[in-house]
Design a protein that fits this description.
Number of strands: 0
Shape: elongated
Main location: cytoplasm
Keywords: Cytoplasm, Iron, Metal-binding
Radius of gyration: 18 Å
Pfam families: Hemerythrin
Number of helices: 5
Largest sheet: none
Oligomer: single chain
GO molecular function: metal ion binding
Protein name: Regulator of cell morphogenesis and NO signaling
Structural class: mainly alpha
Amino acid sequence: MTPQTWVEEATEEELIEHILNRYHDTHRDQLPEMIRLAQRVERVHSGHPDCPTGLSAHLEAMQAELENHMAKEEQILFPMIVRGISGMARGPISVMRSEHDEHAAALARLDELTNQLQLPEGACNTWRRLYEEIGQFRQDLKDHIDTENNVLFARIDGLSA
């Protein structure tokens, strides 16, 4: 069974558990390290024309927004879905979808700040690691949003199986 097939065939409870373990826990691990690396790159390379100035502040803002978003899912939306109160979950889902659009805009800003993750010639190991971490985070967040919007929320909205 492919991962996509598993996601499509999982129960809502299994899907929520997957989202919590694979995405929520992962983002909580990723962001502090990316912020630390970004602060270091900005401090050491502030005079470099390609320095991603403002990146650490943007990552901190993303962390706060994501933490707020994930807390709403964990404390309100996911328990409603697990308890089978899907009709009442449609309101919170519309809020989550709107916030997902905001996360996508934050990812676009991340691309701007990092020049689409293009490293300057001779970038140090910290800068390289930072962009590698951001690349993984970007993909994880996109997959996270896709799984919620197009699988879990679509089921609740009656848009899929």
